[in-house]
């Protein structure tokens, strides 16, 4: 992502800044056409309902992707509850603030083709069922988890919750195949329910499970994915110290799910190996 | 609190807005003199250290309270990590953004004198030891908890964590006396370590405990307090449906701790009963 094309400002009393009282979406847009738009709007709507923030009119939202301009972009929407209220007490009638920025975007084809090395994070995600699955603005845990490494060869970090169950990566969802079945962590206590995850779960049989990281040792294939980057096969998993713990050889199993995900995003669906 | 005297703005790419990646302090200021300033700066410093945000120079911070102007004010500081970085990955050299606003403030003497009615909240605070105690910008749980009631006769809500242990109120710390000893919840998993709590713990023997709400039935006195409002005796505790669960009669025990807290804040230290 490079420089934003729009730089809106918010007042310091905006509740999104003061309390993280709001939601966001990051949407892949190709020549003004958003990918997985219904899924993004559905998640935003669920977040609005859960937080009691009025959802902006569809007409207002639907016009934004076209304004991102030509080429491959990431459109970032931020919806806050706006200003007002008394401390944490929200104003009875909120006037939400909708911000958007569009960034040039280039995906990482080497991650698609060769897979990625990832590591376990030490941080354990806290469990809050009232916020689980939402893409809300309280993301300090993700920031802290992402600060655990700066080795550019490590593409992502895998996170468990405080009960030791697998949840996600710092900005991607986690999938694996075990005994021929696709599985992904259940997100009823922590994590962000990704839109790529949602659409894959609509189209394929993917079981939501509550399991510790030891399950990955039984996996034939592991992937990380989101609606912007596509699907990255995991070829190596390190522990939180950076020592190799598990590895996988890229094969047809990896390519099958990757192809299905990439068709949805307009990314390459077949690879040399 | 009424209208702010300063209305700064932040760009939409500020990480405080994007992720709640920052800290805040709300400081009582009387005629330009801040109350509990060392405790506020100590907590801000701990937060900076934990999040890896450079602490602003003391000279910059120390000059702010005087700018709040004459009278009784609340000075709100927000310190964000600033803009930049790649997604959750923080910029290696952060340029933090320091904002401040000053609000006219009037405390609530009726709460000091007659005590308050509070209720249990349904929301259980999530457990994240890496963030516990800090006054960071990820406060959606407080917002959701505060949204559980709008009865103006209910002054605060008492919160437990997901393990069922008492933590705090939505914007105040919790204290009680039991068998002649002062106690307050340990804040190693959730909650904000208040500055009034900190200074009271420096001066008095107050035990930090990990206990469920049933302990309150054994309490001779219960209080809520923070560095802005002072100390409120609790005279009635309702369950999450609003039905009375416990009550206390105001007495000398209440007034003793209240007097010590209020001396620190320049609030009235003696009451008629």
TrEMBL record, chains A, B:
<dbReference type="GO" id="GO:0008696">
    <property type="term" value="F:4-amino-4-deoxychorismate lyase activity"/>
</dbReference>
<keyword id="KW-0456">Lyase</keyword>
<keyword id="KW-0289">Folate biosynthesis</keyword>
<dbReference type="InterPro" id="IPR036038">
    <property type="entry name" value="Aminotransferase-like"/>
</dbReference>
<dbReference type="InterPro" id="IPR001544">
    <property type="entry name" value="Aminotrans_IV"/>
</dbReference>
<dbReference type="InterPro" id="IPR043132">
    <property type="entry name" value="BCAT-like_C"/>
</dbReference>
<dbReference type="GO" id="GO:0046656">
    <property type="term" value="P:folic acid biosynthetic process"/>
</dbReference>
<dbReference type="Pfam" id="PF01063">
    <property type="entry name" value="Aminotran_4"/>
</dbReference>
<comment type="subunit">
    <text>Homodimer.</text>
</comment>
<dbReference type="GO" id="GO:0008153">
    <property type="term" value="P:4-aminobenzoate biosynthetic process"/>
</dbReference>
<comment type="pathway">
    <text>Cofactor biosynthesis; tetrahydrofolate biosynthesis; 4-aminobenzoate from chorismate: step 2/2.</text>
</comment>
<dbReference type="GO" id="GO:0030170">
    <property type="term" value="F:pyridoxal phosphate binding"/>
</dbReference>
<comment type="similarity">
    <text>Belongs to the class-IV pyridoxal-phosphate-dependent aminotransferase family.</text>
</comment>
<keyword id="KW-0663">Pyridoxal phosphate</keyword>
<dbReference type="GO" id="GO:0005829">
    <property type="term" value="C:cytosol"/>
</dbReference>
<dbReference type="InterPro" id="IPR050571">
    <property type="entry name" value="Class-IV_PLP-Dep_Aminotrnsfr"/>
</dbReference>
<dbReference type="InterPro" id="IPR017824">
    <property type="entry name" value="Aminodeoxychorismate_lyase_IV"/>
</dbReference>
<protein>
    <recommendedName>
        <fullName>Aminodeoxychorismate lyase</fullName>
        <ecNumber>4.1.3.38</ecNumber>
    </recommendedName>
</protein>
<dbReference type="InterPro" id="IPR043131">
    <property type="entry name" value="BCAT-like_N"/>
</dbReference>
